[in-house]
Amino acid sequence: MALYAWAKRANRNCELLRPVKT
Question: Comparing C-alpha atoms, which of 21, 22, 19, 17 is closest to residue 9?
Fold first, then answer.
């Protein structure tokens, strides 16, 4: 399922955007 890969990518983006957003 591509959803798994997409979720993995989204998780990475969330981690990278977390410090930027804060």
Answer: 17
**pLDDT, tens only, 1-22:** 677 877 778 777 677 666 666 5
Tokens of 20: 């930027």
Q: Residue 10 and residue 12: Cα distance in Å, rounded?
A: 5
Residue 20, amino acid: V
Nearest to 3 by CA among 15, 16, 11, 17: 11
Q: How many CA atoms lie within 13 A of 2 on its CB side?
A: 0
Using DSSP's 3-state secondary structure scheme, residue 22 falls into: coil
